[in-house]
Each structure stands twice: as structure tokens, then as C-alpha cells.
Protein 1
Amino acid sequence: MKLNLSNLRFLRPRKSFISQTRTMTHNTDANPDPSKVVDDLLCSERQQRDKGIEETVDAAPLSLGSPGRLLGIDTRVERAWEHWKKLGRPKYIVAPMVDNSELPFRLLCQKYGAQAAYTPMLHSRIFSETEKYRNQEFTTCKEDRPLFVQFCANDPDTLLEAAKRVEPYCDYVDINLGCPQRIARRGNYGAFLMDNLPLVKSLVEKLAQNLTVPVSCKIRIFPNLKDTLNYAKMLEDAGCSLLAVHGRTRDEKDGKKFRADWSAIKEVRNALRIPVLANGNVRCIEDVDDCIEETGVEGVLSAETLLENPAVFAGFRTAEWAKDSEEEEGYVDGGLDQGDLVVEYLKLCEKHPVPWRMIRSHVHKMLGDWFRVHPQVREQLNAQNILTFEFLYGLVDQLKELGGRVPLYKKRKVDTLQESPQKG
């Protein structure tokens, strides 16, 4: 499969697509917001014209070896663990985020400690039907591994057709069973498939019996623990090789208002034989370690925290979480700030073009602390309908010239020589 980036200019989604997924953000009014239309253009078009070639993804997948249509549960579990161990049993994982876990951001997080990542949720039907959507919404490279490619779906055959297209370029094909948003209710996917478990089972079985890469699922918990455990066991029996559990229910959408239930995740981990990952309540690297210790999971996904601070897995904290720490005096300026991260991200976008809407979103998130100090600069960004790299680099320079740098913090290193007893 070749990911052709040289001929992408403008993607005009069909109305049926707009009604089912958040991936494209066009305004369907007769007079659309110019900034939203322009933001759907792919960045670095000049670079693509200069390249004039197709990018070929040639990373060979680590696979289960053959479709699992005739495999018993013991063999499937054994192969699930064998595959996971070949990937290095990653602990620090970038969660799937619509319009936000795209290739440049995944690579940025990888530089700062992430050991695996999910793509944004892809709409299986549109992915199967539309070449432009495939080329624009799914990009990868050799360094982008281990990789979970996530789809939303409600039809097994359509899901398999989409999965077959990405099978050579990922380590897991993931089924989104956790999206709680209204768009998922309208499209009948994500967490709203919890109301139709036979359909969920058929989705997993279809992939498990026809793909050579493992199938993973990402779920939310039921209000009742027993229902959650039965759900997880059903997925394992259907052929799921890895399960990521978000420890909130479908109705608990606000992560700041509702704490994720690590005890429920622990019960799922203890009930299953396949690898289990956790999602929820991660604000710093210590939270990841605490979650693994408390739940026994293999690894932890982070979403919102990474959007503000892509270096969280490298031990960096924002000022908010450094000051909230019980060891506040133990955190010092880590020599890195969110402006530095924005510059690194923009350079990756120049190398791996993505739609401007994604870039705009990341700049807002990463520079949020700075914009609170200098709101006039945020207004400049909001007023800029047509983004360019020159403008965005200039925005960072302007913030730094205005002063009030907002650093990221790291735990103070202890001088073990000073603390060790003197030998007399």
C-alpha cells in the first residue's frame, strides 16, 4: 500500500460523512467559516509539489502469523502475549484522539518517552470508500511503531475491508468501543454499541478470523462491575488480543469531574488472560507508575494530558501539576517549555504534512498556559484564517519576546554524593 501525499490539496467530505464523524470540521452552511475551510487544506503543499513522489510505507508488521479462524483460546492467548512481548511490552502509550493523535504528534510524543501510539479514530466506511480520506487521515512512517490503527464501525464486512487496507502498516487493528460523544450515538458506534453486544462480538470475530495482525479493543466500563467483566470476557472469547479499558462509564464524559475507576480496571485485568491497558487519571509519569502498580496492567494510555504536555512520559510536568504535587519543592525548571515543543511539532508537520485544523488545535493546546498570560497573542491566532509555518513560528517568537516564560518542570535530581555518609 502506498500513501500518496503528493496529490492532496483539498478534501470536500460528503454530507453523509459529516453526519457520522467528527473527523472533518466543515461548516455546511451556504457561507462557511473561511478559517474552517482553509484549515482542511493539507499543510506544506509547496513541499509536496517539490517532492513530486509517493511516500511508501515499508515497515514490516509483527503479526500473529495467520488468521485465527481455527485457533483455540489457549493458542490465541499464547500468541497474543508473544506478539505483545515482541513489541517490547510498551508502558507509555498515546491514546487515540480525533484530529489530535496524527503522525507528527505521535512522533513528538515518541521523542519524549511514548513507547506506542494509536491513530485518531477512523471511520471504517469512509476509509473503505474514499481514497482522499485514506490518504489524508492515515499517514505513517517506519519510525511510527508500535502502532494501533483505530476504526469505528457497526458493520463487520465494512470494518474488515478498512482493516485490510492498513493491516501491513500497523501492529494492531483497534475497534473503538469507547467513544461516548453524541456523534457516536447518531452514528451508532463507539460506546453506544454497548447496547448491542452481539454486534460487538461479530465485529471482533470478523477481524480475528480474517487478519494476520491482532485485534485490539478500547472500551468503557459499565456502571455494574459484573456487566463489565462479562463484556471483557466476551471480547476475549471473540478473538480480542489486547484490551484497553477506560475506567469511566459512557455517561462520565468529563474527565475533570469524574475520576476513572482503577479498581474496575484491576478486576478486568485479573479476569482476563490477554494483555490489558488502562486509561484515565494520568497527569504525570508518577500517575502511570501508580496505575500499573495498583491495577497490574501492562501499560497506560494518556490523552488530554499529552495535548498540553507531549513530554509527560519523559517526566516533565506543567506548572499546574508541579505545584499541586506534595513534593512541590522537589520540582525545578526542566529546561524545556511548551513553546519549544510547538516548534518541534511544526518541524515534524513540515516533514509529514497534515491538515491545518490539526496544527491549529495542537498550537492552542500546547500554548494554553502562555495564552493565559498573553491573551492578545491567542486572539491573533484566532483571527488568522490562513495559517502558515512562518506565522506560527513568529507567534512562538513573539510569546518568548513578551516574557513570562512558562517552563515545564522535572523532579529535582538528588546529589547522592552529598547525601552519602562520609568515610572516615
Protein 2
Amino acid sequence: MVLTQAQPAPGTEAVKTVPPAVDLVLGASACCLACVFTNPLEVVKTRMQLQGELRARGTYPRPYRGLVSSVAAVARADGLWGLQKGLAAGLLYQGLMNGVRFYCYSLACQTGLAQQPGGTVIAGAVAGALGAFVGSPAYLVKTQLQAQTVASVAVGHQHQHQSVLDALETIWRQQGLLGLWRGVGGAVPRVMVGSAAQLATFASAKTWVQEKQWLSEDSWLVALAGGMISSIAVVAVMTPFDVVSTRLYNQPVDTAGRGQLYGGLTDCLVKICQQEGPLALYKGLGPAYLRLGPHTILSMLFWDELRKLARPNQHQDT
């Protein structure tokens, strides 16, 4: 059984859908499970994206050089638990963002919007934008916590938060409510393009694999294959926005709550390209793929399998 938006057939197939409220819970749960496994790569990716901020290549120290050495550098500086820095904030973000994202996407599928030409891309983008906005405060805190480390390997601005609650309280007290959504201008396009690529390509790839009849239609390997294909598209379009989003969230602010390095999405893109070169938009690509790849595969696999478990109870009476 393929995803709802890829199977608009009449009759009994329409009964086998999952309610949007159930998709909210399933989507949030699946992505939180994936986050536990992939958070160490998120820590490394964040550090690499902040390394050499607004400095020309070769003019700054590089404590993070490649995935393996970067993992070792984090472990030496912060201990093994340092590889799970920001995990609580990451779980909060995944629950909020993906709960909203999957709910809205499922709603679009059930109302028939996703069956229109280009509907899966539009539905995925809109659902991702709404999810990113809701989850933005958690991503802000996650980024700042993951950047924090000892001075010898520190990159980017160091905010010195003690915990998720301390970070939220500090930002609220110093910058007000709007301060919790600082940097959302970079997060929304980041998740929009990533969500559109993920949801659209996962559905299409899963359908293609099923049509080839290489695997049993209900096999979890179908969802695995769809997730693997989807992850390539996600990383390709999302990484530049990911770098910008990390920079916007982590930059220091003045007394008025304005960023001291970047004025927004466009300003950040221009400054990175001018001062670091266009390739800097793909800083941390290795860990980004190794993080986004497994995260996409695991979250879409968990989501798909959980939806299968949720369906039988829904259409037993048919």
C-alpha cells in the first residue's frame, strides 16, 4: 500500500487512509526516534557549518576536519555525552515541527489537494513551512546548545546556556517573545524545500519500487528504498539553507535583539558567498548527508510502518 497521495484510486483504497490527527502523532514519534540516532551527526554538522564564519579559506584554524576526526574532536572536548548535546531541544523540535508537518500534509492528501498536478510538492512545502515556524524556538535553542564547547575547539558565537529551559528563559528575558523566533526567516525556506523534496520524492520513489515488483508490496524494504532515494534529493536542495539557518540562529544579537552579523536570509547568503566563497554553502555536507540521509530513511520508514499498524483498526468494519 503506497502513501495516500500516490494512490487516488476510488473504492476501498480510500478507506485505508490514516486520519491527520493520527499522522500527527505517528510523524512526530517517528522523527523523534530517528533523532536519537542521528543527533551526534547534527552536533558535528553544526560545528562544521560555523567553522570559519565569514573568513576566507585558509585564514582560520580548523578543529573539525571531516566526519571521523570531528566526532573525535567533540568527544575529546566534551566527552562522549557531548555527541548528544542539544538532544532534548532536538526532540522538542522534531516533535513540534514534524507533528505539524505530517498533520498538514495528511490533511492535504485526504482533501484531495495532493492529487492535483504538483500537489505533493506544494502540500509538502506548505506543511514544512508551518512546521518550521512552530518548531523554530526549539531549533534556535538546539543550534546554540550544540555550538557550545570549550574554547580550544569553539566555533561561532558561544551563548553559554545551561539547559533548554535556561536558554528559553534567557532569550525571553533579553529579547522578548519575538526573540524566540529570531532566525525563522532562514528556517522556513530550509524546511519548505526539504519537506517538499522529502514527501514528494518518497511517495514517487515508493510507488516506482512497488510498480517494479522487486519487493513485496507490504514489505518494509519498499519504504526503506523510498527513503534512501528521498534522502539524496533532500540533502541536495536543503544544505545551503541549512548552513544559512545555522548561522542566523547562532549569531550574537545587540541589545535590541538584532543580529550582529546578518540582517536576514539574503544578507547571510550574500556575505557567505562573498567572504567564504559559494562552496561554503555546502559546509558540513558529509555529516549533513549522513545525518539527513539516515534521518530521512528512518523517519519515513518508522512513519510508514506505524501507519500500517494504524490502518487495520480503521477499516475492520468495511
Protein 3
Amino acid sequence: MSGNETKLWGGRFGEDVDSLMEKFNSSINIDKRLCHADIKGSKAYAKAIQRSSLISADELEAITSGLNEVDEEWKKGSFVIQKSDEDIHTANERRLTELIGQQIAGKLHTGRSRNDQVATDVRLWLKDEIKSIKVILARLIQCICDRAHREIAVVMPGYTHMQRAQPIRWSHWLMSYAVAFLRDMEMLNDMYKRVDVLPLGSGALAGNPFNIDREYLAKELDFATISFNSLDATGNRDFISEMLFWSSQFSCHLSRLSEDLILYSTKEFGFVELADKYSTGSSLMPQKKNPDCLELIRGKCGTIIGKAMGFLTTLKGLPSTYNKDLQEDKVPLFETCDMVVAMIEITTGVINTLTINPLNMEAALTKDMLATDLAYYLVRKNVPFRIAHNLSGQVVKKAEEKKCKLNEVSLEELRKISEKFDTDVAEVWNFEHSVEQYKASGGTSKSSVLAQIESVSQCLNH
């Protein structure tokens, strides 16, 4: 028997495939991950061709029973992959044929191509993956909200350009990432609509000649709608590139959070300490406690961006419909989703278990961070902001000249700069007073941060 007789496409060829080509062409070690999705799609397709009178009710029962048995083998880990199984579709059909015979199993693929089959399988898999990611992402966001609520009283320096800028609440900093992650969640929800489109019934490229009810297939497989054009449906991988972009954007948010925490955990800052369970040490320096989990998140962000760029490079030169290049879509998709899941779970663990040092945060607050508050003090005395900004800058310069703190510039010297300064200027030099003035929505006052926590929590529950 020719080796090609075991292939789904072997009839046209008179010479066996070279062993190196066989290995090069095979994707089973990657796409076996689609085993359950592939069986789910085949069971629905069997029902559809029975409705079109291409198989009998008894044949449908035999195919369904056989596919259930194949599915159980995958679940139990007893499915044996053969050398001839070049992909998951071949493997499942080969095993089904062994169980129920070729006369019946051979009818399952009627009017169907691996082109529309794999496009369906990947969409089924990705829909489930997105649902799983949403669950753990919501858990991360809620974890941040809970911590922000507990530690609402802690005030710390806020930074721009990596320099101390203005006092903020630690909870305000936490919620800046909760809001970013909530935005990621909204993008994921929007993207799901474009994944939730059924390509099955498109054939290799021209469509299905047996009047298959594609709306019925969509209902059976829980798709919201069907694809409009069979040429586009078999070659479309926009939903994968969009998932890779989403993962790149999301991992950038995780990377920035990690960078902040890496800095805050250094002895130079001392604002936070990671739990031992999320830290590692040095093989040479016994004193070291390294935030490797956060550094790995930062590093994997670059890897994810690279995979997105690589896949887009593959897509950009393809002619229309299906090309074998698209077999490479699952490697970046699967690896990226695995990294995203791990990164979310690690970040949740880090946020849950880290220890903050409010005293170090308070010690890092310096009076020069209240220079803007000094300008606002003058604004409240009817000085135009641009003038107030300039006057406050003069006070900063005076303090630098005298080598003293901003609040140590005397009232007499302040009044030389502006007669608007009075004894009540002493109220400016209070960090709690400073953060509490930012009561507008989105600000760092207690009431505003609590409102942010409430709003984000409500969005998660809707």
C-alpha cells in the first residue's frame, strides 16, 4: 500500500512523500490542542449533512458515537498519534475510520475542506480561551480594587519623567492599572464579536455544493453569525492577528506595572516588598532577593510583541484564500495565550501578597512636591495661573539659593515675591491636604479614588 493512501489527499499522487517533507509538513504536535474543537465541529457538520440527506440517521448515530469515543481517548490521554497523522483533522478522521469503518466515516468530510475546518476549530478554541482569560483578568482587576480600598489612607510620591512630581494616594496608583486592565477587558469583549463568526460551510474556497444549512451549523456550534464570503472565510486570520495585538497591548500594561513595582521594591525606594513565593535569589550573592517574576513579565511582553509582528509579516504577502503559510498561525496564538494566562495569574499573586511600607512612602514625600499647591494657593487669591506658576517658581529658586526646604522660605521673603502670600500659606505644606484637594472625578482625593473603585467594580459585575 502506498503511503499516500493514508492521506486525505493521496489519490492524485503516485509517489510517496519524502520522509523529510512528511515531517516538515506535519502540524499535529501543535494543532493537537484543537482536538476537542475539531470533534465538536465534526459532530455538528455530521448533523448538517444528515439534514441535507447526505447520510442516514443510522450513519449519523455511528459517526457521533465514534467521535465521542475519539473525544474520550483524547481526554484520557490514550489517543495514539500515528506517523501518518499530519494534522489534528487527519488524526481524528483516521481514528474514526478505525472505529466505524471507511464506508461511514468516509462520508463525514463530504463538501468540507480542511480549510474551513481548521478556521472553525481555531475560532472555537479561541472563543473558549477568551472566556477563560476574561475570568482571570476580572479576578486581577478585583484584586487591585480590593487592595486599593484597604489601603486608601496611604500617601506616596507620584512621578513624571521618573522624578518626584506631586503627592498621590497609593490607591490612586493601583487604580490607574485597574482602569487600564478594565479597558483591556472592554477591548477583549469587542474583539470576541469578530471571533464569533462561523466559517464552516465555505469548503476549500468556493463554498458548499450540498445546500448545507450554515445558519443551523452556527446555532449548533454557538456562533453569533456566519461568514459572508467563502473566499474570505478560508483565508481570514484577522481574528488571530487581533488577538496577538490585544495581547501585545495588554502585556504592555502588565510590563509597565511590573517596571513600577521593580523600582518600588528596590532599596533605593523601599516602597514595597514582594513575597518570598514570588521572588528568587542569586547563586552568588546570598543577600539578593530578585523580583524575577516581574522581570519575566517585562521580558515576555517583548516576546509577545515579536510574535504579533512576525505573524503580520507572514500575512502581508499572501494571495487570497487559503495558503499553507497559515499553518503557522497557531504557534504564535497558542504560545501568546499561554503567556498571557501565566502573566495574569502571576500578577494577581504578586498584588495579593506584596507588603507595602507606608513609612518609606511618607519619607519620600518632599516639600518641593507642593510647589504646584503653592501656585494653586495664589490662584485661589485671584492670581492668574500663569503668573502664579511663575511666582511659585521664584519661591523654588529662592529655596534652592538658600539651600532650604520650600516651606522654610520665610513669610517675609515670600511677600517680597508676592504680596498675596499671608500666614495661611502654612496650610499648603500638608500632604494630606494636598491630595484631598483633587476631588474632581478621576483625581487622587479619598472620595475620588473610592468612586473609581466603585465604578470599576460595577463594570466588572455587568
